[in-house]
Amino acid sequence: MNKLARELLFPLIAVVAAFIVGGILILLVGDNPIVAYRLLLGSALSWPDGIGYTLFHATPLIFTGLAVLVGFRCGLFNIGAEGQLYIAAFATAWVGITFANSSSWLLIPMCFAAAILTGAFWGAIPGVLKAKFGSHEVINTIMLNFIAVALVSYFTQYHYKVPGDPILQTAPIGPSAYIPHLGRFIPGLPERIPLNLAFILALLCCLLVYLFLWRTKWGYEIRATGSNPFAAEYGGISIRKQIILAMSVSGALAGMVAINEVLGNRHRYYDGFSDNYGFTGIAVALLGRNHPVGVILAALLFAALQHGGIYVDGFSEHVTKDIVQVLQGVIILFVAAEGFFKWALGRRLPWNV
Amino acid sequence: MRDIFTLSLIASTIRLATPLVLAALGGLFSERSGVINIALEGKMLAGAFTAAALTHAAETSLGMGAASPWIGLLGGMLAGLFIAATYALSCIKFKADQVVSGAAINILMLGMPGLLSGAFFLSSGSTPQIPKDHLLPQSPVVIAITILALVAGIWYVVYKTPFGLRLRSVGENPEAADAAGVSVARIRYSGVLLAGILAGMGGAYLSIGQSSLFTRNMTAGRGFIALAALIFGKWRPVQTLLACLLFGFTEAVSIQMQGVFKLPSGDDIPVQFIQMVPYVLTIVVLAGFIGSSRPPRALGIPYQKEK
Asked: CATH code at A282?
């Protein structure tokens, strides 16, 4: 049994098992699982809408999946991608509004920098707290999520809303900060589909994260800290530095969701825009076995489900799009409890896992 | 300042703190045994949904009248127990990462109530309204007495009974407890299951006590505030109760006092800053700026019995 097949086996079993559990639930609520699953997954494969929207939804999930991955590789659990991307999205919108009259050549890089640096900053806070005071990053990132959402909602409501607008959102950013939809370059893909340049950036980030973690000294030190902090420290690596570095990189990746959302899609900050991207990122990283290629595949699966959820809501009698979250939860549960499959299948597997 | 401590504010502090106290005390059992409980949110959601759905069913289909909220409460506790059993199996028996399984439970429970209510009540995520006289008791005095009795009971169990001693020792030093003949797994199962029952109860009070129906994601982070209170209360029952009351108070203030207090500039105090208080305090306390809050030593580490 070669390594690749083994890496693919458990995620695949977890997904199939989750779909079986989901299917039983669909039966229980009174619908036909095959019809529901066809709606859920089939709609994602149609050209151009299904594929376009699936890739669009996959973009933030690739970013947050990478963010969680970088944390995991350092032995850290970043549950804070949600907060990091909210703060970053607001900062990006702020730059896009404040410097609206600049030219694209200046404004777009500035907005990129805002997204990346603010995300990195918000990620660095729990990193510093862990490195300096030893406080658990899981608790701190959870707390910082709520603080980020409240902070951003305050600034939007009190300072950056267009007066009289009933929706909690900022004014639009300057048109020179817009990044183009991919429909402009791809024949047959209509421009109304919000799939934009950020998707290409997300793929590029997968490559960069791979090169960073597996081909640079910094990345090596992060992974060494993650796999055995004591040995790493003995080998002369400063664990504290790695924790702060990994959390900052993680936050920066989460922050890039802002590029997709603010520069590529809504062109403003919009309260509650994130469809749990930060939390789904956990599922994406885990199902993707903490590898950039796995992250792309897992993000595509969850994005397809997310897109299909709308059709399930519209066309099936009882099942709602909530089935998507149920499937996500069950998939993570199964991926996490790998021991379950080893226990359930252990004696029947043809090799020693 | 005199206006802050009106009777109605105290009453609403107690009512708002109740679900937090129940969930946080549940978390205490689980975390003192060494199992992290970020899944309190999911367990509360399970409890809240089941309680509201069952109360409605008991009231309309079974004609149970005033007994129906108690059926609902029982159902909420069982739902919490069921979720906790899943969680316990995954992190104790199958040694899954506790934070990952907890996150999975939270995501699962975000979707599950919507899926079920879509099927049972043909609604998108909420249960039908329950009439006012078929809800759990609202009187702050009754609630306060119940909560005080519960905290006293839990304090006694944790500090004065053999079970409490084993619970604490398993959370601090499972190897030593194991060597002394304590079954680490059994104690941790009890801790996690108790957490499920109490968090389910907390959720139930949210839907059929404070409110009169279940709405989508109605806990809105209360499971995490309960976790924050547990940390702020240094994993001890009485301090945790006080932390919950403080956080309940901030919530009451942010609801009732909106527009009452003004900044010197004449503007409202933004509600967002009041909402942030529990989270900021938790970070500060965890970092050791105000006293230190030290978690149980074996928290989050699956126990592998030596062979």
From this structure: 1.10.3470
Give tens-digit pLDDT for A298-343.
999 999 999 998 888 888 888 888 999 999 999 989 988 877 776 6
Asked whether the beta carbons of residue A338 and residue B112 sit closer than 8 angstroms, the reply is no
Q: Which residues pair with A343 in a beta bridge?
A: none
Cα separation, A33 vs A37, in Å, equals 6
**Residue B25 CB-density burial (10 A; 0-12 exposed, 13-18 middle, 19+ buried):** buried
What's B2-286's CATH class? mainly alpha
Confirm or reject contact between B112 and chain A (CB < 8 A). Answer: yes
Q: Is A168 helix (H, G, I), strand (E, B) or coil?
A: coil
Four-residue CA torsion sign, B128, B131, B132, B138 = negative
Closest partner residue to A142 among B91, B114, B224, by Cβ? B224
pTM, entire model: 0.91
| Domain presence at residue A347 | no
Token couple for B303? 């126990």
**Cis peptide leading into A48, omega within 30 of 0?**
yes
Residues of B in contact with A129 (CB under 8 A): 283, 286-287
Which of B38, B107, B270 has its CB closest to that of A158? B270
B30 — phi, psi (to 5°)? -70, -45
**In chain B, which residues have their Cβ closer than 8 Å to the Cβ of A25?**
115
Q: Give 3-state DSSP helix, strand, coil % of chain A, rounded to 5.
A: 75, 0, 25
Q: Summarize pLDDT for B239-290 with one digit per residue, the tens.
A: 999 999 999 988 888 777 666 666 666 666 788 888 888 899 889 888 877 6
Min Cα separation A331/chain B (Å): 8
Torsion, Cα A57 B107 B57 A317, to 10 degrees, reads 20
Neighbours of A106 (CB within 10 A): 12
How many domains, chain A? 1
Domain that holds residue A93: 54-338
